[in-house]
Amino acid sequence: MNIIEDVNLLRQKSEAIDHKSDECRTIIQRLIHNIPNGAVGLSAPQISEFKRMFAANLSNGRFVFVNPSLKLGNKIVSSVERCLSIPGVVRNLKRSNKVTIQADYAVKWDYLGGHPTVMKDIDYSMKLHKQDAFIVQHEYDHLDGILILDRPVIEELKAAPVQQKVVSQSKKERLKKKRQATKARRREEKRVEIQEHFIAKKFGLFDT
Questions:
Q1: Residue 21's domain spans which residues?
Q2: Looking at the domain assignment, is residue 2 inside a domain?
Q3: Three-state SS at 118
Q4: Which of 11, 143, 137, 147 is nearest to 78 (CA)?
Q5: Phi and psi, residue 188, nearest 5°
Q6: At residue 63, does pLDDT exceed 50?
Q7: If you write DSSP's letter for every residue of 35-93 in order, what string do you get?
Q8: 80 and 111 in contact (C-beta within 8 Å)?
Q9: Are 11 and 108 in the same domain?
Q10: Structural domain tally of the chain?
Q11: How confident is the model at residue 157 (pLDDT cuts 50, 70, 90)?
Q12: What global pTM score does this model have?
């Protein structure tokens, strides 16, 4: 598997492809054989095929879309994303919460006998939400030469987890000190009680 990591090369815009051609069938096979285990998507440009095609592992199955187009919803939300071509980079991006994807052609595939296999052609129009919507927007960006490095970042969401961690840690410290103070007070009360008991016994202060 050879996934391109040259960001300058990846910023090329891909061309449409004849979905009935042998070239298209070949790229479909390359995409489903090269998508890494655990990955949610892979675009044709990432495997040096600058055609408008990508594979996506969605909640309702594994797909390859050919010459796709997207209709984005109006609501913009945060999407935490990584990219196989830019290892080590994680970004909070602005994405549409809903998307409708249409394509000239699409296939559904899965692993049969341990081998990736095209199962059937599918309906070329699909409405997607949240994580599925983020995946297809990410892969579609690759077809236009857009990387996660080029997308607007929601800066304030990056600081929030750190702030929460500090508050949580501060609360933990306060609880810890309170428990330690309670234990110390009880030890002191026990020591005084033992001492008073000893004195009373020594000087015969117990009732008989």
A1: 7-153
A2: no
A3: strand
A4: 137
A5: -65, -40
A6: yes
A7: SPTT-SEEEGGGGT--BSEEEEEETTEEEEEEEEEEEE-S-EEEEEE--TTSTT--EEE
A8: no
A9: yes
A10: 2
A11: very low
A12: 0.70
